[in-house]
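Final report, closing paragraph on structural work. Over the funding period we assembled a curated collection of sequence-structure pairs, and we close with a single example.
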Amino acid sequence: MEIDTTTTAGKIAVMQGYADGKEVQCMLLGETQDWDDVKGPSWNWLQYNYRIKPEPREFFIKVAPDGQYGMLIYTTEAEAAKVELVGGSKVIKVREVVE
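Its predicted structure, as stored:
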């Protein structure tokens, strides 16, 4: 969920997230890429935009021995293991890369 930091409430939400132990990233205003991790943010909202660092999503898929996989995505490994594909299968854990 993206927090709207153009509002005071949004800025407070990011700072509260940091106070609660979440990781924070910053980017120079006017930039459109390259969020940088920040260990001790200065909260200089006039020069930087801040956000809570996104957490990668994780899910599971089933893969048949021939390398084909189904289009179903499972939220837990146990759910994926319950489904059996013809000829056997294995469960693969997928983790999103967040940049």
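The longest strand covers residues 58-63. The chain has a mean pLDDT of 86. We thank the funder for supporting this effort.
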